[in-house]
Design goal:
Layout lengths: L13 E3 L6 H16 L6 H8 L6 H4 E5 L5 E8 L8 E6 L8 H13 L12 E8 L3 H9 L3 E12 L13 E5 L6 H12 L10 H15 L5 E6 L2 E9 L8 E9 L8 H15 L4 E7 L6 H7 L3 E14 L11
Parallel strand pairs: 4-5, 10-11
Antiparallel strand pairs: 1-2, 2-3, 3-4, 5-12, 6-11, 6-12, 7-8, 8-9, 9-10
Helix pairs in contact: 6-7
Length: 337
């Protein structure tokens, strides 16, 4: 009987959990990968630390890094299953200098065991499938995912608009007015509006409000700029939200629409379009040269068509890979009735 040789690390390489002190070196790996694949770097130290400090995250259990014999970090992987145990999500990076090495395969071997820890956390009847996102043109990472038995399940877009052109003016529906976020009053209502808006997004799984609120506030604590949080109001009701950042990663010239959502009673009235166009004008007034956002390429609510009509184009294609760990009932929105 033939034995299968499992790749191992070369002599002198070390494999261990990540620590907060590793964060700068991990970001350098992420940036090197981004530049090798798409020519620009999206990763930032603050975003990484936000992920690592998210309530429920445990670096000892959820991350691994690989160091070369000289101590330099060359590989990193994280598995997150706190929010959606039915779809534990992995994110792995190997420095391009080591793409011909066994570093990536060793990281993925650990992922297989780690993602299965999500199964007991999921409902007993639920289908559990590990997931990973990757740039469509990232041949190296896609090869790692495919060797691990993962397949493309869906596509997403990064869309963008250049601001050195005439921009359409927002037209607000009757009764709808615009105002900025008000500190101390709006946080919970804004998250409630976000939850209502996103329940019809593919793959959405409802979370307990207080748990989501803790993670949501943790994320925005370091990214929050109230002058870029735009609320569409019908009297005292939030009809739609547009929560933006004045940068993407370390790109200070790109404004980023982190969350754009319209609650169910106010859809198809032009609220989302008006919010988006207002954000474009505001970003341009602040000297930004472009604005971007992420979207499901097959959005159940037709978001991609809205963005195209507002002047945006597809800048990058992101592939969602998946591997079933346990068959069962699919938890998460699959269609809009």
């Amino acid at each position: 009987m033939l034995s299968i040789q499992v790749p191992t690390l070369k002599t002198g390489f070390t494999f261990r959990p990540g620590t907060l002190e590793d964060a700068p070196a991990v970001v350098e790996i992420m940036r090197a990968c981004d530049i090798a694949v798409v020519g620009t770097a999206d990763a930032s130290l603050q975003d990484l630390l936000n992920d690592w400090r998210m309530p429920g995250m445990n670096l000892e259990n959820d991350t691994r890094v690989i160091a070369a014999p000289d101590g330099r970090l060359v590989g990193y992987v994280i598995v997150q299953d706190v929010i959606r145990p039915v779809n534990p999500e992995l994110d792995a990076y190997v420095h391009p200098d080591f793409w011909e090495d066994t570093v990536g395969v060793v990281l993925m071997q650990w992922v297989e065991d780690r993602t299965r820890q999500a199964i007991p956390k999921a409902p007993a009847d639920a289908r559990v499938a590990m997931q990973a996102f990757t740039y469509n043109q990232d041949k190296y990472y896609k090869s790692l995912l495919e060797q691990a038995g993962m397949q493309v399940a869906r596509h997403f877009f990064h869309m963008a608009i250049e601001l050195d052109q005439p921009l359409m003016r927002p037209e607000w529906p009757e009764r709808i007015s615009l105002r900025l976020f008000q500190a101390g009053e709006d946080k919970r209502p804004v998250l409630e509006a976000q939850r209502d808006s996103f329940q019809d997004h593919w793959g959405h799984v409802e979370q307990p409000f207080d748990e989501q609120y803790a993670r949501w506030t943790q994320f925005w604590d370091e990214n929050f700029n109230p002058s870029l949080w735009f609320l569409a109001m019908d009297g005292d009701k939030i009809a739609g939200i547009c929560l933006c950042r004045g940068y993407r990663g370390e790109d200070e010239m790109m404004g980023w629409v982190n969350t754009l959502g319209v609650t169910r009673p106010y859809r198809r009235l032009g609220v989302g379009r008006a919010l988006l166009l207002h954000a474009f004008h505001e970003m341009k007034s602040r000297g930004k040269t472009r604005v971007g956002l992420g979207v499901d390429a097959s959005s159940l609510t037709g978001a991609t068509r809205l963005y195209e009509k507002a002047g945006m184009h597809v800048a990058e294609v992101i592939d969602l890979y998946e591997k079933e760990l346990r068959p069962g009932v699919v938890y998460g929105t699959q269609s809009v009735e």
